[in-house]
Amino acid sequence: MKTLVNISKLVVLGAIVLFVVPWLLFTRVEPGMVGVRRSAAAGVDPEDLGPGWRLRIPAYHKIIYLPSTYFFLDYTTDDNGPQDPLEIRTKDNNTVTIDVSVPVRIKPGHAHSVVATGNHIKDGGRYRYQRLAEQTAVSVLREELANLDSVGFYSTERRMDIAQKSLELLNKHLADLHLEAQAVLIRAVRFRPEYERQLGQIQLNEQNKLLDHARERVAAEQQKFDNFSQGTQALASSREQDWIKRQAELERAYQIGVLDIVDPTPGATRARLATLPPEQITELRTKAAKLFGLDDPATVNDSYLIGIKNIQAETLEYKNRVNAEAEAVSGRLGAEGDAMVAKVQGEYEAKLNALLNSPGGRAFVAWQAADNVTFAKELTFSSQDGIPSVLRLRRFAEQFMGSAGQ
């Protein structure tokens, strides 16, 4: 039981040590702040304390907290700071009102120097180093910005250049206070109303000059474009004429060949080709291969040299000649056949007539004629000869045979 009590006492004592000792011996530096340790015997510790838990011995150490972030010196007409806009007398003796913002902070690692010089004390809600920084900034900006004339304030390049020079000079002066500025931001520039009107006209003239210069550049580029377009059109027209010429040459070569033959008689070109020497034929084949875009002149045959029109003319002449010969043979054979048919027909009719003129032939004709005679079923005779002629069969037959008078 006694052991349990001793353990409980140790636990309670440990808890007290863990909670009370850190509260007594350590302090916490918040983010965005920097701490400076000052002791009663050694004075200011030459080391800045960053965010986190830091050692502090009660009654011996004192931790001074300073902001490590930027504070702004706003020389503007808004409510961001107590400063007023800066009025600057320019080099050309003109008055200009400028809105300027300057972000300033304690140089990293120099917070202990600020404390050592006593500039960490607050005066009216602000640190002393902030007030000194404001005074230094006003002095430097008034001095440096006065080197710019009125035209320079509305020139972006010159305005940014003077702002950079002002920043360098300002940091040179702030270095004695262990401070640094990040930038000099010229936010607005205002002249007197009458000069603002003049300035507006000046700026308008400047813009017109830029516009005229831009128009000149546009005109120059347009001229280049027009020249390029005209050159392109001329080149395209030239290429088109070359292609038309090429097409005409190809069409002529395909149609009439590569031989310069004036005689339009079918077969004259082929006959002329047959009389040419081998060297000239080889030259013509090479010319035709180049004209038709063939790689090997050996592939050029006589058809390429003669041309389509000459081949068509030869074909048509051959067709007409063969057709004429065939028609002549057909007419002769047809006439001979008609003559033979007429001869046979005449002989046949002569023999037929001879047969029909014989007694048997006449009897055959009479029989065919009598076979075609039809009497009525009732006959009335009024002949004076007594017996009707149709009943006199012998005589009647002889009449049909044409032998009644014999």
Which descriptors apply to this entry?
58% helix, 12 helices, single chain, 12 strands, Tetrahydropterin Synthase, Chain A, alpha+beta, five-stranded antiparallel beta sheet, 406 residues, 16% strand, 5 domains, three-stranded antiparallel beta sheet
**Unreliable runs, pLDDT <50, ≥5 residues?**
none
Based on CA atoms alone, the radius of gyration comes out at: 68 Å
Count of DSSP strands: 12
User: Structural class given helices, strands, pairing?
Assistant: alpha+beta
CATH topology value of the largest domain: Tetrahydropterin Synthase, Chain A
Domains, number? 5
Give the CATH architecture of the largest domain. Answer: 2-Layer Sandwich
Distance between the termini: 195 Å
The number of helices is: 12
Instruction: Specify the overall morphology.
Output: elongated
